[in-house]
Design brief:
This is BTB domain-containing protein. The protein has helices at about 30-35, 40-45, 65-75, 85-100, 105-115, 120-130, 135-145, 165-190, 220, 250-265, 275-285, 290-315, and strands at about 5-10, 15-20, 25-30, 60, 205, 210, 235, 240-245. It is elongated. By secondary structure, the protein is α/β, with parallel strands linked by helices. Strands 1-3-2-4 form a four-stranded mixed sheet. Among the domains are: about 1-85, Potassium Channel Kv1.1, Chain A, CATH 3.30.710; about 190-315, no CATH class. It starts with a strand and ends in an 18-residue tail after the last helix. It is built from twelve helices and eight strands. A hairpin with a 4-residue loop joins β2 (about 15-20) and β3.
Length: about 325
């Protein structure tokens, strides 16, 4: 009879139970440790298994691969663990931990999932929904706002979770995104905020209706005849409501930013270099706008980013697996 393929990391001389992976690797382990880690293992060991031969411990076949078992067992034994550098590997261990009802390990692995939010928010959202993790699903949905529409949910290479993911889960994140886009647009187009007292950029208006724009933003204060005005007026707020015409370079930035915000309803969208750099370069051609344009635009964008993110933070995603969340569905 050929010698079995044994895991070099889990080949304990005093083992009293053997787990055999789906790819035929044996793990020689201690029953008491597995029973402490998992109530499922405790029940499994009472079921009929392959008969032991001589001094050979009982063999229990499992559906996990050797790699997944190795990762899983490393949390049960006092040993050094490797980092999860691949989401697929982490996902496989999480699936096994949930299958074997290892609650302590599920918590650890879900914390590890957050490390992949910046790079793989769509897959993390899918995993969170499949594992009914409300907080992780919401964090991933918010991160997806910074991914361009419409491909954010339908990439060229969909995550493997799409094979079993309900279509309603994708519909949910689309609806959430639309609400966030509406909220972001409403805040961004609130031009009265631009010259509020809170910003220290107020416009004073005389009784005769003459506006003093000297203390406001570069794109409003400029009086150079060589710096083109926008044909679109703004209704801003000073001591009285006041209609002003910003410089064309700022209006072009504002129009482009509004379009981009619809595709990426996320505060940081407003600060993207492809939006700001052309505006600053155009403003630099004006002797009046040039010296202040970059600083003023940065201050304006920094404040607007906070306003947009604050508005988005008030939007909740409706998750059907959360009790009392949405249409009365229960977890």
């Amino acid at each position: 009879m050929p010698e079995p393929n044994v895991s070099p990391l889990f080949n304990h001389a005093k083992a009293d139970i053997i787990l055999r992976s789906s790819d035929g690797v044996e793990f020689r382990l201690h029953e008491v440790i597995l029973e402490m880690a998992s109530p499922i293992f405790c029940d499994m060991f009472t079921l009929p298994q392959e008969a032991s031969q001589g001094d050979r411990a009982q063999v229990v076949d499992v559906s996990e691969t050797a790699r997944t078992l190795e990762d899983l067992l490393s949390f049960c034994y006092p040993m050094e663990r490797s980092e999860f550098l691949q989401l697929s590997r982490l996902r496989a261990v999480l699936h096994a931990a949930m299958k074997y009802d290892m609650a302590f390990l599920v918590k650890i692995l879900k914390r590890n999932l957050t490390l992949f939010l910046p790079s793989e928010p769509l897959r993390i959202y899918a995993i969170a929904c499949l594992t009914e993790d409300r907080d992780l699903a919401r964090a991933a949905a918010k991160r997806l706002l910074d991914c361009p529409f419409p491909g954010f949910a339908f990439p060229p290479n969909p995550p493997p979770e799409y094979d079993i993911l309900p279509a309603t889960v994708l519909q949910t994140v689309h609806e959430y995104r639309e609400k966030c886009a509406e909220a972001a647009r409403a805040v961004f187009l609130d031009h009265k905020w631009m010259c509020s007292e809170a910003r220290g950029r107020t416009i004073s208006v005389s009784k005769k209706g003459n506006a003093n724009l000297s203390q406001t933003w570069a794109w409003l204060a400029c009086d150079s005849v060589s710096c083109a005005k926008s044909p679109t007026s703004l209704n801003v707020h000073g001591q009285r409501n006041c209609t002003v015409y910003p410089r064309a370079w700022w209006q072009k930035y504002s129009d482009s930013a509004a379009k981009e915000l619809a595709l990426r309803p996320f505060g940081s969208t407003l600060a993207r270099a492809e939006l700001t750099e052309p505006a600053i370069a155009e403003a630099a051609k004006c002797k009046t706008c040039g010296p202040k344009a970059a600083e003023d635009l940065k201050e304006y964008i920094d404040a607007m980013v906070k306003r947009v993110d604050e508005a988005i933070s008030k939007i909740e995603i409706t998750l059907s697996f959360v009790k009392g969340d949405g249409k009365g569905n229960t977890a």
